[in-house]
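Internal ticket - ligand job 200, manganese (III) ion:
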Amino acid sequence: MSYELPPLPYDYTALEPVISKSTLEFHHDKHHAAYVKNFNDAVKDTELDSLPIEQVIVKIANDATKAGVFNNAAQAWNHTFYWNSMKPGGGGTPSGELAEKINADFGGFDKFVEAFKTAGATQFGSGWAWLVYDHGSLKVTKTSNADNPLTTGQVPLLTMDVWEHAYYLDFQNRRPDYINEFLTKLVNWDFVATNLASAA
Ligand code: MN3
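stdout (structure tokens):
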């Protein structure tokens, strides 16, 4: 069974002016599509082909002989999760149980924002910033390249791509500006709340 490239959950222009149509076309149609194709090509006719992609990611995370498969599997999954982490008119502050949990575990929404900005800005080179549910607590983490919190038993709730291809056409080297706009204008807190409800 092959993993399919999901369509973007919104129009290519929906995240403008923060993320341009051009960025989404390259990012989804070229980068994400390539990870999906490479993953499918790599697992075709192997035992991994019958597993859900999340299980493939966890199963081969520590197998150095399958590093290439892992990178494409994780990047295929991470990008789908990233598209869903954003929405037009998003950002701002969460509400309800999610807001209460953020206040309880970070000491306030501003502290979460500070931690998330720091994670994204200090990820050297390519990678991802995450909000995860880790055995009862919310945590902010960062991962390099394709790495993904599923491999350490954490439940991803929100992610932000900090590979240069995610923001370079729109922000050039100004990664902190991209992070700030992601948080204030794009985060899909409904998606995060749904993920927390499933995880908790
Ligand atoms: Mn990317």
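Auto-summary: Residues 27, 31, 79, 161, 163, 165-166 surround manganese (III) ion (CB under 6 Å). Helices lie at 21-43, 53-60, 67-84, 96-106, 109-122, 168-171, 175-186, 189-199.
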